[in-house]
Specification:
The chain is an all-beta fold. The chain has no helices and 16 strands. The strands form 5 sheets. A 4-stranded antiparallel β-sheet has the order 1-2-3-4, with no helix packed on it. A hairpin with a 2-residue loop joins strand 5 and strand 6.
């Protein structure tokens, strides 16, 4: 969950329903619902744009191999089961008629961190960080998170921040 920049509205990712809701905290009512990608997790504001990390990626297209997850057909590897797509949803909260946009990123996007006009996204299932320019909503760089050259995959970045000009990434499977 996160509050709007002015603090008037609470936004929440409803993971099992593939939606984001706007809540009037004073009344305790839902004022708006957006359909987003599969399994929304984290929300970050940049201005009036709300970025949503969709852990399960985008919705399936006709003919794609899928698995069922809580009633949603997820584009997925039929043998191993993980999603084969990675997206962020983008909601323009200032424009009630605007369609929800999507940005392709790495697999299983989870944690996000905003610094100025840059959004960093931890892609847990492909061991990368996507760097998104929020002025254009495009991925401008993809950073590998292996801790040393030649190391095996599987480090699972799952938290991210910037401190003193350095990008810090938690590697969940390495306890690093």
């Amino acid at each position: 969950m996160t509050y709007s920049p002015d603090g008037s509205t609470l936004y929440a990712a409803v993971n099992g329903q593939n939606t984001v809701v706007a809540i009037d905290p004073a009344a305790g009512t839902i004022t708006r619902t957006w359909d987003v990608g599969i399994a929304p997790r984290q929300l970050k504001f940049v201005g009036t744009k709300l970025y949503v990390s969709d852990e399960g990626g985008r919705h399936a297209r006709p003919g794609e191999t899928t698995i069922n997850s809580y009633g949603t057909q997820v584009p997925a590897d039929p043998y191993l089961g993980p999603s084969t797509t990675g997206v962020l949803s983008v909601i323009d909260t200032a424009d009630p008629g605007a369609a929800v946009g999507q940005i392709e990123v790495g697999l299983h996007p989870t944690a996000m961190h905003v610094k100025d006009d840059v959004l960093y996204v931890a892609n847990t299932n492909d061991d990368t960080v996507s760097v998104v320019d929020t002025t254009t909503d495009e991925v401008v760089q993809t950073i590998a998170t292996q801790p040393y050259q030649g190391s095996a995959i599987g480090y699972a970045p799952n938290a991210i921040t910037v401190h003193n000009g350095r990008l810090l990434v938690s590697l969940g499977r390495s306890n690093a």
